[in-house]
Amino acid sequence: MSAERLIKKYPNRRLYDTTESRYITLDEVRQMVLQEISFKVVDRQSNEDITRNILLQIIMEQESGGEPLFSADVLARFIRNYGEAAQNGFAEYLDNSLRFFTEQQKALQQQVGKALEGTPMDYWVKLGEQNMKLWQDMMGGSRGAKKSD
């Protein structure tokens, strides 16, 4: 596994990826999360670890656009659990639940993949994945071109 990437946040609110020696967007940080790339975000002036703040900012953007994951009731329950004696237990429960959910999703994907292996459907799924990757690469390249303008 590669070393943790260091991202510095400057006073002008820009994020600088020290590994790639370039400024990045919040969406690119989100992609790092999705790709399970280990990183740490620090404030350029104070050197304070602000990774959690950046992750919360990404969640806020996700929640404000499209279909929100958390209802007002769920968010109210989160707030009620802050400062309670059971806060650590609640955080551990959420962490374990999310970890279990992720493992189950991966296991299901593997089982479906094995069931489809060698069938015509397998061909179409792989072709679709390949086309999606090409599309994402193309879109990523066009975004990079816009930044340099």
> Strand order across the biggest sheet?
3-2-1-4
Report the radius of gyration as a whole number of Å: 19 Å
What fraction of the residues are assigned to beta strands by DSSP?
Answer: 5-15%
Q: With helices defined by DSSP (H or I, 4 residues minimum), what is the helix count?
A: 5
Mean pLDDT: 83
Number of E strands: 4
Q: How much helix is in the residues? A: 55-70%
* Topology as a string of helices (H) and strands (E): EEEHEHHHH
Describe the structure.
Mean pLDDT is 83; it is low at 143-149. This protein has a four-stranded mixed sheet with strand order 3-2-1-4. The chain has helices spanning 26-34, 51-64, 72-81, 87-116, 120-148; strands at 5-9, 15-17, 22-24, 39-43. The chain contains five helices and four strands. With 149 residues, it is α+β, with helices and mostly antiparallel strands. It has a domain at 1-69.
